[in-house]
Amino acid sequence: MNLHFEQTRHVFAGQMQVGAGEQVLTALLGSCVGIGMIWRNGRRCALAHCLLPETDISSLDANARYVSDAVPRMLRELGVRREQYDEVEVVVAGGASMLAALRGAEPIGRRNVAAAREHLSRRGLRVRYEDVGGHQGRRISIDCDSHSYSVVGIGRTPGVLQ
Predict the structure, then answer these.
(1) How far is residue 13's CA from residue 30's CA, in Å, rounded to a whole number?
(2) What's the pTM?
(3) Which helix (H) or strand (E) holds 138?
(4) Structural domain of residue 90, as residue ranges?
């Protein structure tokens, strides 16, 4: 992956961004789940940094706080029509159990990952790569020019995936 650092766009918690050309979308994740979409035919990519799994009220805000809002919004902003969903590659990362004291309850990270799987599956979207769970954070990056991605665990040896 040839990262174009001058074109790097950081996607912070609760945000979503669409990129193209030499842009690189990146997010640092803990219990949040990062959902990346690569649409080669449309020459666009998107990355959402979701804090929580679901909301009962569909938000009109331009954010990705909830997985349930982020997935359809990403598809809409990419410009993908339903009949083109099979052209979209999906990468999911994050969902770690970061706090030892909270490991007894259903961790929010696990719930975020389950929601991502459900909302993607509901639309027939195939997850190409997934690196989720555990007890460490991750950084996800999507290079919109090469249509490649990387997921690096904090404290792990970096690996590049294509």
Answers:
(1) 10
(2) 0.88
(3) strand 138-143
(4) 5-153
